[in-house]
Amino acid sequence: MSHKGNVYVIDDDPTIRDSLDFLLGSANFDVTLFDRAADFLDSHSGLGFGCVVSDVRMPGIDGMDLLRRLKAHASPLPVIIMTGHGDIPLAVEAMKLGAIDFVEKPFEDERLIGMIEAALEQGPDQTKGDSISAEIVSRIATLSQRERQVMDGLVAGLSNKLIAREHNISPRTIEVYRANVMTKMQAHNLSELIRLALRAGILRA
Fold this sequence. Notes:
The chain has helices spanning about 15-25, 35-45, 65-70, 90-95, 110-120, 130-140, 145-155, 160-165, 170-185, 190-200; strands at about 5-10, 30-35, 50-55, 80-85, 100-105. By secondary structure, it is an alpha/beta fold. The chain has 2 domains: about 5-120, Response regulator (Rossmann fold, 3-Layer(aba) Sandwich); about 130-200, Arc Repressor Mutant, subunit A (Orthogonal Bundle), CATH 1.10.10. A 5-stranded parallel β-sheet has the order 2-1-3-4-5, sandwiched between helices. Helix 7 (about 145-155) crosses helix 9. The longest helix is centred in the C-terminal third of the chain and has 15 residues, at about 170-185.
C-alpha cells in the first residue's frame, strides 16, 4: 500500500515523537522526526511536500518562531501546531502566523489524523477564493449582536468565564450562545471557527 503522504514531526519530547511515529506510521504516513525546529529548518528546503506537526513550546526555536521563518520563506508546507491545555491564545496567534490548525494535548488520534489528511489534500498550491470568504461573511451576518460578541471573545482566546464577566452574563448563558455561534458558522471546533474568522477578516494575520 502506498503512503498517504509525508509528515514532519517536530517535538523535543522523545516520548511524544515516538508516540506520533507509531501512530502516524500505522496510519500509513511517511513520518520523519525532528527533535529541534532548527534541524528541520536546516533540511526543509530539500524535503518533499508534506504536513508539519510541531509542538509550540520548545527550547531554542519554538513553534511560533518556526511559523515566522517558514512564512518569511513562503514555504508551501502546511503546519499543525500542538499546544498544551490553556494555550488557546497562543494557538490563535499561531493561526495568524499561518498554521492551518492546532490541536490540544492530549488529543484524539483520529482527530489529528483527519487534520493531516485534510492538510495534505490541499496540496502545495492552496487557493483562497473570494466566493468562500463571501459565504463566511454571510454566516456572520446571521449572528445576533450577543452571538457576535461571544464569537469575538472566542477567537480572541478568551474563556467562557472571561466572556461572561466582560458582558455581565452567566457562563451557562455563554455556553448557549457559543453553541449557537458554532452552529450558525458551521464550525465543528474552535480552531475551525478561528480559521473562518481569519478568512472573513475578523482576525488579521
